[in-house]
Design a protein that fits this description.
Layout: H1 11-15, H2 23-47, H3 51-60, H4 65-77, H5 85-96, H6 100-108, H7 113-121
Helix pairs in contact: 3-4, 4-6, 5-6, 5-7
Length: 124
Amino acid sequence: MKGYLKRDDDFEERRKKLANLSDEELKNRFWQLAEQVVEPLLKMAKENTTPSIERSVLLRMGFSTLEVRPLVEGAIERNLIGKGVGHIVYRVAKEKGISIREAGEKLIAGDYWDLALEIFKGGR
């Protein structure tokens, strides 16, 4: 095996910490470590979004591919994308007492963006 690096096997040394744990304790340790690995991923998913994700949400809300572009671009231009474009449409609809569809159409036409800014930047 010329050319290969030899790895020092320290399995027995590392195993000593776990050797006296019961199956239940090993299981709990596994899940504790798994949570540590996944926690940053969950945090990132909760705190971040992308235009692609926002388009997907809007499509599921019933908007067409042609309609989602100006909604996402409008949110990006106003630094509101982090609030969620579907959430913006929903909050505008709720505030104005209109349907989600109507709110989306108004936002596409350029209306209600000041209201959206007020809601999300003004702490409403």
